[in-house]
Structures are given as C-alpha cells and as structure tokens.
From TrEMBL:
It catalyses: dCMP + ATP = dCDP + ADP; CMP + ATP = CDP + ADP. It comes from Christensenella massiliensis. The keyword Kinase applies. This is Cytidylate kinase. Belongs to the cytidylate kinase family. Type 1 subfamily. The gene is cmk. One of its GO terms (molecular function) is ATP binding. Its EC number is 2.7.4.25. It holds the Pfam family Cytidylate_kin. The lineage of its organism: Bacteria, Bacillati, Bacillota, Clostridia, Christensenellales. InterPro entries: Cytidylate_kin, Cytidylate_kinase_dom, P-loop_NTPase.
C-alpha cells in the first residue's frame, strides 16, 4: 500500500503520517527532512541553498541515506547524522530555497521512489500525490489556516525557544508556502484525486481517526 500525504507547512502532515504508519504497520518517509538535510549539508560547505550555481556544482558529491533507528527516521547527509540539526527556522527557509532547484528534487525523488518500490509506505511532503507517487492507493491534502499552523508551531517551539514569536512564525510559514506553491517544478498543489482535510478546527486525534478511517475503508474495498 502507498499513501501520499501533502500540504503546507505545519498542517499536521507528519503527525498524521507517523500515526497512520504505526497503526497500519507501514514504513514512514518524511521527505521534508531530505530537503532540510540537503540545505544543511550545503550550508555546512559554505554554500547558500538559494545559490543555484554553487548548489549544482556540489550536488554530485552530496550523499544522502535514510536509516531507521527504533522506528524513527534519521537522515545521514555527507556521512553525518543531521537529524538533530534540521528543525531550525534557518534550515526551514534553506530547504524551501533548495527545493526550487529541479536537479536537487530529481536526486531526492529518486531515493523516495526507490523506497516506495521496496516497501509499503506512507510518505509526506509537498509533491507526493502529484509527482513522486502519482499512482498512490490513497492521497490526502492536509491543511489548516496559516494562523492555526503558526499557533501549533509556536506551542511546539516555546519550551526550547522562549523568544519564539507567533507573528514571525506565521510570516515565515506564509513566505515558505508561497515559494513552495509558485516554483515551476513539482510545486505544492493538491492532486486532483486527493482528499482535502482542513484541520483548522480538528485536534490531532480527530485528524488521525478521520484519515485512518478512510484508509481502512479503502483497504476493505
Ligand atoms: O508535518 P507538518 O509540518 O505538516 O506538521 P506537524 O509537524 O505534523 O504538526 C505541527 C504541530 O501541530 C505539531 O506540534 C502537532 O502536534 C500539532 N498538531 C495539532 O496541534 N493539531 C493537529 N490536528 C495536527 C498537528
Ligand atoms: O514540516 P514542515 O511542513 O515545516 O516542512 P517540511 O515538510 O520538513 O519541508 C521543508 C521544506 O522542504 C518545504 O517548505 C518544501 O520547500 C520542501 N519540500 C518539498 O519541496 N517537497 C517535499 N516533498 C517535501 C518538502
């Protein structure tokens, strides 16, 4: 079974994808982590993720591997486990910048499709239903209002980043959604056959129950 989950930043994609993967005993691939890892690896080499020429010359030597440790995904980029370092605002922006470059996307999409060939999988990202797995068994487009998505990210951050500012988070999210949905190659877009789930007024459990219910129904048919 292949399940595609797409949507804008902070909509709850990975929360739902992880829960569904656990319930149905499927593998989970967080493709956003791969774009984040690519941005991190470039910055580490002193390259701005938006500098297309420099990124293209470094791309052939960028190595990336996804490994699972006690069920959780780790991304190894250039031989380093970058998982703990890729959730910052700087890397979010860098990921969105590097994700515009088609050659970067093709390299990562190759790895993603390869994983889907070998395992039953739930994948979340921006272009899974439209580009990476157009033949997925079931597709979801998960969204929520920008304010609600910023509120969720703010609650998540405030313990570790006391200076976190909800308005700034909302501005960053809106800017990233714009970059993601206006790029030319594989932009963020709802696939025609995706089920739209607006989670603005839904809590985690409600979203997980709703999505798992539809998947169970699909499996029965
Ligand atoms: O993967 P994506 O960026 O779409 O979002 P996420 O990381 O799954 O969720 C962002 C935050 O919102 C997490 O802290 C979730 O626990 C929370 N969340 C929520 O409060 N209500 C939901 N219906 C879904 C997620
Ligand atoms: O969790 P959040 O929604 O904040 O972001 P993410 O899913 O970790 O993705 C980070 C960035 O990677 C996004 O803003 C996109 O620019 C890019 N991305 C993409 O272009 N295609 C994907 N399939 C996944 C992520």
């Amino acid at each position: 079974m292949k399940i595609a989950i797409d949507g804008p930043a902070g909509a709850g994609k990975s929360t739902v994808a992880k829960a569904v993967a656990q319930k149905l005993n499927l593998n989970y691939l967080d493709t956003g982590a791969m774009y984040r890892a690519a941005a991190y690896a470039m910055l580490k080499r002193g390259i701005e993720p938006s500098d297309r020429t420099a990124v293209l010359s470094a791309l052939p030597s960028l190595s990336m591997e996804i490994v699972y440790d006690a069920g959780s995904q780790k991304v190894i980029a250039d031989g380093e486990d970058v998982t703990p370092f890729i959730r910052t605002a700087r890397i979010s922006k860098g990921a969105s910048d590097i994700a515009v470059i088609p050659e970067v996307r093709l390299k990562l999409v190759d790895l993603q499709r390869n994983a889907a060939q070998h395992y039953d999988i739930v994948m979340d990202g921006r272009d899974i239903g439209t580009y990476v797995l157009p033949d997925a068994d079931i597709k979801f487009f998960i969204t929520a209002s920008p304010r609600e998505r910023a509120r969720r990210r703010f609650l998540e951050l405030k313990e570790t980043v006391p200076e976190a500012d909800i308005d700034e988070i909302e501005r960053d999210i809106i800017a990233r959604d714009k970059t993601d949905s206006t790029r030319e190659f594989a932009p963020l877009r709802q696939a025609e056959d995706a089920i739209l789930v607006d989670t603005t007024d839904m809590n985690r459990e409600q979203v997980i129950d709703f999505v798992s219910g539809l998947i169970a129904e699909k499996k029965r048919r």
